[in-house]
Amino acid sequence: MQTSTIAWLIALTSGIVIGLFPVIMMFLSWAFTGFRGDMLGEAGHAVFLWYLMISLPIGGVVGVIAIIGLVINALR
What we know:
Layout: H1 3-32, H2 52-75
Helix pairs in contact: 1-2
């Protein structure tokens, strides 16, 4: 496997992680409180879902760029 392919796969993985980071943080916040309360309630842990408005487009752009890079790399 070429070094550039590994770099594009790392970029794709990081795009997915960036996109899903608020959901992961919401779950961890809920877990650290002993699974009490409503996980999706606005007053509680769902505040992290508002970060999806920023992280999902950024993660999507990074992911699409990584996929384009992988395709270009495979066609060479």
